[in-house]
Amino acid sequence: MTISRTSRYYGLETLEVDGKLTLSQRLTGTPPEFPDSLNHTVVGGETLDGLAKLYYGREDLWWWIADVNPTRFALELSPGEVLVIPPIRVATRAPRS
What we know:
alpha+beta; two-stranded antiparallel ribbon
């Protein structure tokens, strides 16, 4: 997966912890809420980049789904998990300068 330079994960390395690939750090706190978000129930074999392609038409926006679902392990989804999918207008907004 490619990490966008506007992602909070940009520049972070992945680490192997207890045999699982993980991000070196994740921010904590309450994720943003958007009234027009969708809920997606994960089925076998789905990935964040695949969901970003499905909902946004762009695989590189996978990190935005990870950002609004901070309690999920971003690189390993389990069938039955429900993820919040933020609206495309939010995922593609330009960063503030």
